[in-house]
Amino acid sequence: MDEKPESGGRPDLASALRRARIENAERADAVADLREIELGRLALLESALQKVVRQAPPGVDLFDLTLSRGDRPRVFLDMVAFIEMARDRRTYRFFQDTLYGRVAIAESPKIETIVAACTNYVARRLVERERALAADAPALDGDDAGAAPEDDGEAALHAPLRGLAGRAAERASAADEAPRRGLAQRLLAALGFFLMALGAFTLLGCVLLAVWLGWTHQFAPLWSRLSGAAPL
Predict the structure, then answer these.
(1) Is-contact 82 106, C-beta < 8 A?
(2) Which UniProt keywords apply (predicted)?
(3) What pLDDT, in 10s, does the model give residues 99-114?
(4) Which residues does residue 108 pair with via DSSP β-bridges, in sequence order?
(5) Do 62 and 127 contact (CB within 8 A), yes or no?
């Protein structure tokens, strides 16, 4: 661009301002074109990843494929994984946010490479979910798990007898425990009565002692001064 001053060598602010506005408009158009190119390539990636996410088992809500059109356009695969374009607007970069910082999983200008990396990521997340669900499931009882299954006919034949034997054993156990519980209750009642009586006698003794001390040290001398002789 010609930077020579106009009007016979004298600076012309109006011309310089016009040239600056033209340059700014050209840069804005170039930035807008680059942004449209970036959004178009990310939209192609999102369309390719939709086929992968749809293959997840029904009821799995781990993945929410979204194209974010902010200052830095990104395709979010879930809450912690996303794809964005490099500075050249041609290279895809696949990142994951972890507890130890942001990790680059894959980087390539080929959309097929990024789709394959995202597919592997989805598979790993599904396996992690299955392991978490298996860890939360209640463990089987050791005796029940190790017991060998019986024949259905034999089990059905012995089931009523086992039920009667079990109820008889429960009644016998209850009959044996009834006298023990009655004796224990009587012993506890006697101990409670003894402690209550002991506490009552102790309180009465303390009251009588306090009355005697008060009479001896306070009221007896006063009575002697008034009447000449103490009554006790």
Answers:
(1) no
(2) Membrane, Transmembrane, Transmembrane helix
(3) 999 999 999 999 999 9
(4) 92
(5) no
Single residue among 105, 135, 165 that ends a domain in this structure: 135
Residue range 171-213, pLDDT digits in tens? 666 666 656 666 778 888 888 888 888 888 888 888 888 888 7
Q: Determine the pLDDT at residue 171.
A: 65
Closest C-alpha to 60, from 34, 78, 72 = 78
Domain boundary among 111, 135, 159: 135
Q: What phi and psi, each to the nearest 5 degrees, are found at residue 68?
A: -90, 125
Residues 82 and 75 sit within 8 Å (Cβ to Cβ): yes
3-state secondary structure at position 60: coil
Q: Which structure tokens are listed for 101?
A: 């910082």
What totals of helices (H) and strands (E) does the chain contain, helices first? 5, 5
Q: Residue 191 carries which side chain, given as an amino acid letter? A: L
**Statement to judge: residues 117 and 28 lie in one domain:** yes
Q: Global pTM?
A: 0.48
CA–CA distances in Å: residue 161 to residues 17, 100, 170, 179: 106, 63, 14, 28
CB 156 within 8 A of CB 162: no
Residues 209 and 123 in one domain: no
- Evaluate whether residue 157 is within a structural domain: no
Phi, psi of 96 (to 5 degrees): -140, 130
Contacts of 192 (CB under 8 A, 6+ apart): none
The domain containing residue 195 runs over which residues? 177-232
**Residue with the two structure tokens 């946010």:** 97
The strand pairing partners of 101, in sequence order, are: 98
Place of tokens 């054993």: 169
